[in-house]
Design a protein that fits this description.
five-stranded parallel sheet; about 15% strand; Rossmann fold; six-stranded mixed sheet; 13 strands; 2 domains
Length: about 425
């Protein structure tokens, strides 16, 4: 998002919230104050009585405001504007100001269309109490007018099918600000320009214990700025299908306890092995369900990276998995395959196992029987024959990189060089594809 407008009832705290965001995210945010209020104060217009003069002043001010919005966006900042013409239209209807209502259609296209509207929500009664507390009677609006305005504004958004994001502002200010910063994808101490140059979705593939989770742990330990600038990964969330698989194992334990057959797995050497290969397709559908809401409009994924981690094996394991992924995911994806031999995968698999924490991402183990049956064959070299290249899945081009991850290393300098050597050209290919 490049341009977002904040709205809400009087005294909800719009000005204060936006000012704090600009103060604490100076690398990313620029704020434009409410245009109507700015005009009223500058030209000493009576907000409730001088409506014709106000409409004329708004019309004069709009070209400059539009130019300022474009300038902020062009310089790489998020433009946050307080209030908008739709709010003023709703007030005009509530106050019986036919002059602005009639002028609105001629003015509405002067300002660029926001990417989203954020509404700070409080009850009308709370707005009245806060208006009294702030002591600015010239801007106070009574409950009846607020009710009419709010109803008309809801209709305005409905007619336009606006992207309207509500935030509860009737609670402690720190909670409201935290949600507002999250909705706007603001990251402390990192320029927004750096976050613009990061992956949307990174599929992280490879045999069990190949080093996928260790790569995620490495990235998690970096500052957001360093991770974005060197490895092209923004503040991220991880979707890993192992916890989903483990839950199916535990479900089978319950069926067994009820003296019913296990559905998907069997006990194997103090652990579990998959017996129903349709479970692998089920896990991809669960990944689709977890990731699609994040990447499908009107959901937001601005300046965030989703890392999707899974292992597959067999003569068509990765081909089948990738073909089942949702197109909305594939369209925003790059693939990093972490490559180790079967023997190295087994060695690390045994070394990392902690029986007391066998459900953990970094501590679980795959039984030898499962390793040989499921992961003894790996179709990635068939799917992707080069170190770097492009796959086509369902008509969608997807860049990939294969990163050799042997010998094993715990040296952060060596790992950083290894990861950067794979991710930098992968990002370049992904970026060029989406230009």
């Amino acid at each position: 998002m490049d341009y977002v407008v904040a709205e809400g009832l009087p005294a909800v705290g719009k000005s204060e919230a936006l000012a704090l965001l600009e103060r604490f995210y100076p690398e990313s945010v620029r704020v434009l104050p409410e245009l109507v209020k700015e005009i009223v104060e500058r030209e000493r217009i009576d907000l409730l009585r001088d409506r014709a003069a106000l409409t004329a002043a708004i019309e004069r001010a709009l070209p400059e405001r539009a130019a300022r919005i474009r300038e902020i966006v062009e310089h790489g900042y998020l433009c946050l504007e307080e209030s908008h013409l739709g709010v003023h239209l709703a007030y005009s209807v509530a106050l019986g100001d036919a002059g602005f209502v009639n002028a609105y259609d001629g003015l509405r296209h002067t300002i660029p269309e926001p990417d989203a509207y954020v509404r700070l929500e409080i009850p009308v009664s709370r707005s009245i109490a806060r208006q009294r507390a702030r002591g600015t009677p010239g801007f106070d609006v009574d409950a009846a007018d607020l009710d009419r305005m709010a109803a008309r504004l809801d209709r305005w958004h409905g007619d336009r099918a606006s992207r309207l994001i509500p935030i509860d502002a009737d609670r402690p200010v720190d909670q409201t600000l935290r949600d507002l910063a999250d909705v706007l994808d603001l990251s402390y101490g990192i320029p927004r320009k750096a976050l613009c140059k990061t992956f949307d979705i990174l599929l992280l593939l490879g045999r069990p214990a190949s080093g996928k989770s260790e790569l995620i742990g490495f990235m998690d330990g970096l500052s957001a700025a360093k991770r974005a600038e060197r490895f092209r990964i923004a503040p991220f969330r991880v979707v890993d299908d192992f916890p989903i698989l483990w839950e199916r194992f535990l479900d089978d334990d319950i069926w067994e306890k009820l003296e019913r057959p296990r559905l998907h797995s069997k006990r194997c050497g103090g652990n579990y092995a998959v017996t129903d290969d349709s479970l692998w397709g089920f896990l991809i559908e669960k990944i689709n369900r977890h990731v699609e809401p994040v990447v499908t409009p009107p959901a937001r994924l601005d300046h965030r990276t989703v890392i999707v981690e899974f292992s597959r094996g067999g003569p068509s394991g990765y081909a089948d998995a990738l073909s089942r992924l949702s197109p909305s995911i594939l369209q925003r994806t790059a693939i990093l395959y972490v490559s180790v031999s079967f023997e190295e995968s087994w060695r690390r698999n045994v070394a990392r196992y902690d029986e007391k924490r066998r459900d953990g991402i970094l501590t679980h183990s795959v039984p030898r029987e499962e390793m040989e049956r499921t992961y003894g064959t790996d179709d990635w070299p068939v799917v992707a024959g080069e170190t770097h290249g492009m796959l086509e899945i369902g008509g969608i081009a997807i860049p990939y990189a294969t990163m050799p991850n042997e010998p094993e290393s715990t040296d952060p300098i060596e790992l950083g060089e290894r990861y950067a050597a794979a991710l930098e050209p992968l990002y370049a290919a992904w970026r060029d594809l989406r230009r």
